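=== Per-residue structure ===
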Amino acid sequence: MNKLIVVTGGTKGIGRAIVEKFAAQGFDVVACARNEDDLQQLKTVLEQRHAVKVYVQSADMAVKDDVKKFIDFVLHLNRPIDVLVNNAGYFIPGEIATEAEGTLESMINANLYSAYYTTRGLVHGMRERKSGYIFNMCSIASIKAYPNGGSYAISKFALLGFSKCLREELKNFNIRVTAIMPGATLTASWEGVNIPEERFMSVEDIADTVYSAYSLSGRSVVEEIIIRPQLGDI
């Protein structure tokens, strides 16, 4: 049986690139996203291109009930999870003093709580088997405050802290945990900006990095990976 990777927010951007990278290596895939049409397109393309099995479930990972629904969907597959990628999240620019009321709560729900609850729901099988890998998609904003970062940076700082706690809790269960901290990557978050495409990193570079970390022997783990555009942050 193929190994299994679970990716939240798996139809676009970095999540999509990670799904495609692991599917190309023979992994079956479980993915969620809000848009059902995008999920069905992902399923069709990957199953035809790589001859793997793809399971999809629509879910808004900023909503706790949807997170629970996705966890139940994964558990009902009754398959061991080899890799979990907590990728779901989004970015709204703003300043703490002036951003819209509720911005912090919204981004904490999407960028932090989604990873927290998904991990709590799915990690028990990994602990029982003493095997697995968890990637948390953090950000340069997890280590560097910047203008207009606002609640996004707060949520990503917290996600890095969550990753550090997981690392300590799970290392004796032979479960590896890596925090990925990409800088500016060419995704929908940057649509409409007047910046040359070559100034950004590609989503494929992030996916290749994730797979490279996964490919290390079980004796080693890369705890944190910072990836920046060659010319620096934008």
The beta strands are 4-8, 28-33, 54-58, 83-86, 132-137, 175-182, 224-227. The chain has a mean pLDDT of 95. The first strand starts at residue 4 and ends at 8.
